[in-house]
Specification:
By secondary structure, the protein is an alpha/beta fold. It contains 21 helices and 18 strands. It has a five-stranded mixed β-barrel. A five-stranded mixed β-sheet has the order 12-11-10-9-18, with no helix packed on it.
Length: about 650
């Protein structure tokens, strides 16, 4: 019997990924999953039963894709629901234990860590803030005391980066501001502790030969992707010139490690199984020491699949390895799908596999140097083109100098990284040779950094403030690959589909333009309140203090042509009546207040004060003290008064139609 489907791994992965997306945005119960599956299968079988002309094969050919998609979709929803940790500890003061798990890049005021918090037989991953003027906490530090957990603040203005959602995709929902009121119980030595210890030991061995702090931070970034100590100027230069990928452990690092190991092993043995075991173990160890980021896990898993394919002498197409590695990663860690690095990594690899063959025919193959330069340019252009819209969506910028910067950074950092990998065993056995390599690596790093910093200082190398919606991201990316498919396969169907999705987007945008889009936003920041009214291309901003929303960003995103700003004190009427309660001074209003905004932690008799004000809804400012917020929430819930906690839910959008 003929095969029903040649490559079932593709629709399975596609359906599984869609199931994860659906489960993330629509929280269904497991019973609904099975109900949906039963209804879908029942409808398909009825549809097939209406046609007597179906043969067994034709029925099998028709129903198999449906069943595969439904099952993959269902498993994606269930696996995501079962593996993603939800918030289990309520915000408040709890007695318990903290175990430091991961150090993050510090900000201007605080050191930051991820930690596991244990209290009352429950465990939850939390974000820790620790003052910069205190001693750093080692990985595995075991602390005991009374800790106050707080919800991570949602975006309090439109188009703000939503840090709470970003951390929620990493199963982190609360934060703790750590003071010195705790007991240090020692070091909790788990698997993560020993990995960190090995990584630190290796880096310290390098640091014996590299005494410059800039070299040390670059080595930590190149080898293990650890950028916590990277100087701000250098980090901005790499980011703005579009070569940050060389400091985020990815396929480039894995390929170089594989080449170094493969070259060394050729002088020892030709046995394929020995090569597979040694290279596989090194790649797995490297992934663990690098922190198991999405990009390095993808690269290592694809390499292992290639090695296995070579051993069993099976078809070893790169696209198969990429899709299989995605399915395996998301099977064990479905939340990886929402990791920005994971998305950029897979989209870049897919672009190289899919688009690069079109460009490779035009690369000069004469001469080793010209060939390498051509390949760097080709791969850089293709990868940047593939991730362009996703990068704009997340970072709102596009580097114009990415070709030049990749020609600088890729060869220099690749050579430096290869020398660092060769140097690793020499640090212990041949110090004199290691010292010679140190001079070369330090020179390469210094030249690369200086060139990129100078390039970053040039004007107009970066287009900033570019904003696209999620609908535009989807349509533009699909259209790009449909256009490439048309060029590669010369089938008009791809061109027709591209025009269909582009026209569909234009019709959707035209519908929004023709309709009246009128909204009110209540924004907050620090001790400020801002009420923003928008109607089509016109906006009015009423603010206390300096204002909250980024006016230029907001105007650019919504194509505003006229923006006016005003100041107000406690009372504002614009479509709705707002009253800000921030002191003991209470004013009686004959009108009914639509929104009562509580800020500045007012200490008032709630029954006496609120009886004077007739209101419909309450908005709690995000900077209220936790104890005040809890008291207000308890009171409002007892009185069945609708409220919006801006700390947990972010800014308020009031739609007016």
């Amino acid at each position: 019997m003929r095969k029903v489907m040649k490559y079932p791994i593709y629709p399975i992965t596609f359906a599984y990924v869609n199931g994860i997306f659906f489960a993330n945005y629509f929280a269904w119960n497991i019973s609904w999953h099975f109900f949906a599956l039963a209804i879908s299968l029942f409808a398909i079988l009825i549809w097939l039963g209406l046609y007597k002309s179906y043969t067994l094969y034709s029925i099998q050919s028709s129903i198999s894709p449906f069943i595969i998609f439904i099952l993959g979709f269902l498993f994606g929803m269930i696996n995501y629901s079962q593996n993603v940790t939800k918030q289990v500890i309520k915000p408040g003061v709890h007695n318990g234990y903290l175990i430091i798990k991961e150090q993050l890049k510090s900000n201007e005021y605080s050191q930051r860590y991820f930690a596991d918090f244990y209290t009352n037989d429950t465990k939850e991953r939390v974000l820790i803030y620790f003052a910069n003027d205190t001693v750093s906490l080692p990985i595995g530090a075991h602390l005991y005391g009374n800790f106050e957990t707080q919800s991570i603040r949602k975006a309090t203005a439109p188009l703000q980066f939503d840090y709470a959602t970003y951390l929620a995709n990493r199963n982190v929902y609360q934060q703790i501001y750590l003071s010195n009121q705790y007991v240090f119980l020692g070091i909790h030595k788990d698997f993560n502790y020993y990995l960190t210890k090995i990584r630190t030991s290796l880096l310290n061995q390098y640091y014996l030969f590299y005494d410059k702090s800039e070299d040390q931070s670059m080595i930590a970034g190149l080898i293990f992707g650890q950028r916590q100590a990277l100087p701000q100027e250098i980090e901005e230069a790499y980011r703005n010139t579009g070569v940050m990928h060389v400091l985020a452990v990815s396929g480039l690092h894995v390929v170089l490690l594989y080449k170094v190991l493969h070259t060394v092993l050729k002088f020892i043995t030709r046995n394929r199984w020995v090569h597979f075991v040694i290279v596989g173990l090194f790649l797995i160890a490297f992934a663990m020491l690098s922190g198991l980021s999405g990009s390095v896990v993808r690269a290592v898993l694809m390499s292992l699949i290639f090695l296995i394919g070579g051993l069993v002498k099976r078809d070893n197409l790169t696209i198969h390895s990429m899709v299989l590695s995605m399915l395996l990663i998301l099977w064990f860690a479905p939340s990886y799908l929402f990791d920005i690095g994971f998305q950029l990594s897979y989209l870049a690899v897919f672009s190289i596999i899919y688009i690069y063959p079109l460009m490779s025919a035009y690369i000069n193959k004469q001469g080793f140097i010209l060939k390498q330069i051509g390949e760097i340019i080709g791969v850089s252009v293709v990868a940047q083109l593939g991730v362009a819209f996703l990068s704009i969506y997340y970072f709102h910028q596009f580097p114009l100098s990415f070709i030049v910067s990749n020609l600088i950074a890729v060869p220099l950092t690749s050579l430096a990284l290869m020398l660092l990998l060769i140097q690793m065993p020499l640090l212990y056995v041949l110090p004199w040779l290691s010292s010679l390599i140190t001079v070369i690596v330090s020179f390469l790093i210094n030249v690369c950094n200086q060139l990129l910093v100078k390039l970053n200082r040039w004007e107009h190398i970066l287009i900033n403030d570019i904003y696209i919606t999620s609908q535009e991201l989807f349509v533009y990316t699909i259209s790009l690959f449909l256009l490439v498919a048309f060029i590669r396969f010369r089938k008009a169907l791809y061109l027709h589909l591209m025009f269909v999705v582009l026209i569909g987007l234009q019709l959707f945008q035209l519908y929004n333009l023709l309709g009246t889009d009128e909204s009110l936003y209540v924004n907050a920041n620090r001790n400020e309140i801002e009420i923003l009214y928008r109607k089509d291309s016109y906006a009015q901003i009423y603010k206390q203090g300096e204002g909250v929303v980024n006016i230029n960003k907001f105007a650019h995103f919504y194509q505003l042509t006229d923006v006016k700003t005003y100041s107000f004190k406690n009372v504002l009427y614009h479509q709705q009546l707002f009253y800000v309660l921030d002191s003991l001074e209470i004013i009686d209003f004959p009108e009914e207040i639509d929104y009562l905004i509580i800020k500045d932690n007012p200490i008032v008799n709630k029954d006496r004060v609120l009886s004077k004000l007739q209101f419909k809804n309450v908005i709690l400012h995000p900077n209220m003290y936790a104890t005040h917020r809890e008291r207000w929430i308890r009171y409002l819930e007892q009185k069945n008064i609708p409220y919006h906690d801006m700390r947990n839910k972010g800014y308020v959008k009031i739609a007016i139609r």
